[in-house]
User: Fold this.
Amino acid sequence: MDFLSQIINGLGIGSIYALVALGYSMVYGIVQLINFAHGDIIMVGAYVTYVVLVVAGAPLWVAILASILFCTFAGVLIERVAYRRLLNMNAPRISLLITAIGVSIFLENLSQLLFTSSGKSMPNLFPNQLLGLGEVQISSISLINISTSVILMVLLQILVNKTKIGKAMRATSEDADAAKLMGINTNTTIAFTFGIGSALAAVGAVLYCSAYPMITPYMGGMLGLKAFVAAVLGGIGSIPGAMLGGYLIGIAESLTKAAGGSQITDAVVFGILIIILLFKPAGLLGKNVQEKV
Amino acid sequence: MSVLETRNLGISFGGLQALQDVHFSINEGEIIGLIGPNGAGKTTVFNLLTDVYIPTDGVIELDGENIVGQKTYQITQNGIARTFQNIRLFKDISVIDNVKIAMNSQMKYSVLSGIFRFPAYRREEKEVSKRAHELLQVFHLDENAHDLARNLPYGQQRKLEIARALATNPKVLLLDEPAAGMNPTETMELMETIRLIRDKFQVAVLLIEHDMNFVMGICEHIVVLDYGKIIAEGNAEEIRNNPKVIAAYLGGE
Assistant:
């Protein structure tokens, strides 16, 4: 049952893409911004984990918690410093996009300054064992990744659909001006969305480090891009879509590797992006939104 | 006692004086009409009252406190709610959630309490759901509570906008052309509804409307704007016979 093992492997790595894709998708949903600095939040999360765990020698749970809190704070800070004025002035989307790229370059260079450009190697975060279920071999890391992403997804769904801040998020994404007139502080709501997205990216960072224990200032680039592809594949703006897209990209990668195409996995991922943009630009679960006239 | 009062209110866009020296006051439970030809500045008054535009002159007092400079969401929380000339519901959200969103700021539970469904969350959400259903019943929308707002017929969407505005617990309700696009029967119903909510929720109503039968039939006091200035005010009879008003609507001297 090699095929099934590969699927589960794919789901394992896909969980990481899914968690990161959620951040892209939620931020896009609420302010129509492709936040290209989001990938670098993963890098920030990885370095915070490294510093707390290895340099300060704290236990793993402290490192994970610190990473989540720091990234949440970083996400909120980035929104406050880099985007809020542009959003409130109704700046053109292209200005926001360029600012996002600027933030991304800033974060990469800052971490290069602080930690040099040579990679740091991460110790094993979680026990890595192969568990045999009948004929199917599953690595414990895949299992941890999948269950973490599923639990977070469920909590996120509850947050967005059942709580007041979730309703504020949906209202702000539909019509921010009307939401203000219903007594909703849209600035806080947008900042909260950045915070949640970054917290999920931090969890993604920890899971990524346990699978690929090498961190560099530029690690967020490719991972962020693939997560972005996942978000587009699932339908950007859609939360279940981001999860689905993440899993599918993970599976596609894993099957390509298993078929002996390790060198072309990236090509396959971006090939999927091209195909989805050609045939279903709104993504698998996205709504076909018509521009308002 | 007046719940909302403006004095010397004005705004200019570049060189254009869109509103000048607008002054009126609304008492508790009063229904006031704001009328005038197209482009007179009626909706601009609403936009000033809710900080969509910032006035260049004058004061707006809500319960005796100047609210100029407060943010839109704060003004709403402090007691001014509004509807829109062109309907602006949250279309892809259910009818009941549209109403509950407007009650958001009245709920105090924390984010964690929300995710893990602690008692505070359950209690407040239950309370809010109950109030939202009561509100929908007033507008006969209760049956459609779980439909998406976009699937309601036009007349019901207008009602839902009013219900949503009332959900913010306003002292003053601003209605921007509530009867637009309604047939005479629906307009009659709407008049009944507005009287009903005034009595039931003790809210003052300021409304913009072009349908003169509607305005004359329901408003206790009418303010007439033309070219950004108040040209007349009084009760229906006084307005109907005011030569300046007739001139503004029909042209002439």
Observations:
- The two ends of chain B are 37 Å apart (CA to CA).
- The mean pLDDT of chain B is 90.
